[in-house]
Write a structure and sequence with these properties.
This protein has 480 residues and is of the alpha/beta class. It has three domains: 69 residues, Winged helix-like DNA-binding domain superfamily/Winged helix DNA-binding domain (Arc Repressor Mutant, subunit A, Orthogonal Bundle); 133 residues, Aspartate Aminotransferase, domain 1 (Alpha-Beta Complex); 241 residues, Aspartate Aminotransferase, domain 2, CATH 3.40.640.10. Helix content is 40%, strand content 13%. It has 15 helices and 15 strands. Strands 3, 4, 5, 6, 7, 8, 9, 10 and 11 form a nine-stranded mixed sheet that branches. It has a four-stranded antiparallel sheet with strand order 12-13-15-14, with helices on one face. The protein has a two-stranded antiparallel ribbon with strand order 1-2. Helix 8 links the parallel strand 5 and strand 6. The structure holds pyridoxal-5'-phosphate (PLP).
Length: 480
């Protein structure tokens, strides 16, 4: 018996050594059980036991009718804190989150709720007064703006110039003639998806991914393929590589700079790899860079777009997180898909409000804008820190949380088996908003997780709310 135990352990260690030495790489199929048994002169049951042990260690996974495959490497752990996002490849699934999301939205938007729900900076952090002044100025001086053709004059040239100017430091700046100004980032994402997909297609997304992106897929009859995403390093390019080898992917939709909800940041060398891989496989990339300007580090990270030499990346963004969500002003720089995106924009909504475009252009060109962004970045970093500390103080033992490097959302993972949907019901009754984790997955994952908005200056009221939320998270009905 001891002999047998030793034999399967020895085989498990041998295979683990090949995985560690990258002789067997993530996504590789292991030799079949029969072949291993034959070659190693072991019984079938000893081989199966060895493979089961590797499976338990998270190093291989069994896929029905296909055999055993090497999993993605475990991320380095920082003690207790690191959320355990998905490491295994999934299958494409239809999305069905909209009706539940609308219910959640209705609750978190009630007046007087503690604002941990919608990812929005507090109004006091935004330059509302100066936007008001600019509306007056532009209204008085630029009456002709109200006389433009709503289906041909889509872009205000001053605003396009500002978007290009703000990209000049990137490896590859945006080109004015690839830009379409949109009503928000959501519209930009929607136009891109319409331009390159058909109902029934599969779109690769981060796991967890921003629920509004999933909702767009749902609305267009697209399937979501959830790609493992590291809480600090973002979408796994290794996993995307494997997935795109295994099946047809119509587009890859991601937030490479400070994802929502993880706050992850894809390193430059991986962005470059992603841009090259997707161009080589002719898979259009739809990149959402809405949080890119809200970096905590000294430098603004470049988007994947700036590593793309094939015009294959459509970069979407908006002023919703940095100027005001009420402006409903964004853009897409669509590369080789520009003509298709332009047509979709004309069909969907025609031109974006020209007065608002002129107001935003004036703000973006001012030195006051740079000052405002510096202050906003500092506030976001401080608020994320304050919220993180409060969670560590008040939430049940075993809670993990993300360590965003920009933006203003936090991803909290309660002890395995906890139910954030139950927590949500309790919290809403007590006037505290947040977004339950399962809304960030097309396949109902992350039920023990929640996303918290840190867009508001810290206050005793917010601290009290985190304390209460932590106590509720520790109650028997929420815990496993
Ligand atoms: C990643 C991401 N993209 C897009 C949006 C929506 O932006 P907009 O208001 O410009 O549509 C949000 C808002 O939370 C977001 O987090």
């Amino acid at each position: 018996m001891d002999q047998r135990i030793l034999r399967y352990e020895r085989l498990a260690d041998e295979l683990a050594g090949m995985i560690a030495g990258r002789i067997l790489r993530p996504g590789d199929r292991l030799p079949s059980v029969r072949r291993l048994a034959h070659e190693k002169r072991l019984s079938i049951s000893t081989v199966v036991q060895a493979l089961r042990q590797l499976e338990e260690r998270g190093q291989v996974e069994a896929r029905p009718q296909s055999g055993f495959f090497v999993c993605l490497p475990a991320p380095e752990r920082s003690p207790q804190l690191e959320p355990q996002t998905r490491r295994r490849l999934a299958r494409p699934v239809a999305v069905d989150i909209s009706s539940r999301l609308m219910g959640v939205h209705a609750c978190i938007a009630r007046p007087g709720m503690v604002p941990f729900g919608t990812a929005m900076p507090a109004a006091e952090l935004l330059p509302i007064a100066s936007l008001q002044r600019l509306y007056g100025l532009v209204g008085r001086r630029s009456g002709a703006l109200l006389d433009r053709n709503s289906h041909t004059d889509l872009n205000h040239p001053d605003l396009v110039r500002q978007f290009v100017r703000h990209s000049l430091a990137w490896g590859q700046p945006l080109a004015a003639d690839e830009i379409v100004v949109t009503n928000s980032c959501t519209e930009a994402l929607s136009l891109c998806l319409r331009a390159v997909t058909r109902p029934g297609d599969t779109v690769a997304v981060e796991s967890p991914s921003y629920y509004l992106m999933l909702q767009l897929l749902e609305q267009m009859g697209l399937k979501a393929l959830e790609i493992p995403t590291h809480h600090r390093l973002g979408l796994s390019v290794d996993a995307l590589e494997i997935a795109s080898r295994e099946r047809r992917i119509a587009a890859c939709l991601l937030v490479s700079n400070f994802s929502n909800p993880l706050g992850s940041l894809v390193p430059d060398h991986e962005k470059k790899r992603l841009a090259e891989l997707m161009a080589e496989r002719r898979i259009p990339v739809i990149e959402d860079d809405i949080f890119g300007g809200l970096h905590f580090g000294p430098d603004r990270p470049w988007p994947v777009k700036s590593f793309d030499t094939a015009g294959n990346v459509m970069l979407c963004s908006s002023l919703s997180k940095t100027l005001s969500p009420s402006l409903r002003l964004g853009y897409v720089a669509a590369g080789r898909f520009h003509a298709e995106v332009l047509m979709q924009k004309t069909l969907t909504s025609g031109a974006t409000n020209p007065v608002t475009q002129a107001v935003a252009a004036r703000h973006l060109e001012s030195t006051a804008h740079d000052r405002h962004l510096r202050g906003l970045r500092r506030a976001c970093e401080r608020q994320v820190m304050q919220m993180s500390e409060a969670i560590l103080r008040y939430f049940p033992a075993g809670t993990r949380l993300s360590q965003p490097q920009g933006g203003f959302v936090l991803w909290v993972e309660l002890p395995a088996g906890s139910d954030s949907a139950v927590l949500f019901e309790h919290a809403v009754r007590e006037g505290i908003a947040f977004v339950p984790g399962d809304l960030f997955s097309a396949s109902g994952r992350y039920r023990n997780c929640l996303r918290l908005n840190c867009g508001n200056p810290w206050s005793p009221r917010l601290e009290e709310a985190v304390k209460r939320l932590g106590a509720l998270a520790g109650e028997a009905s929420v815990l496993p």
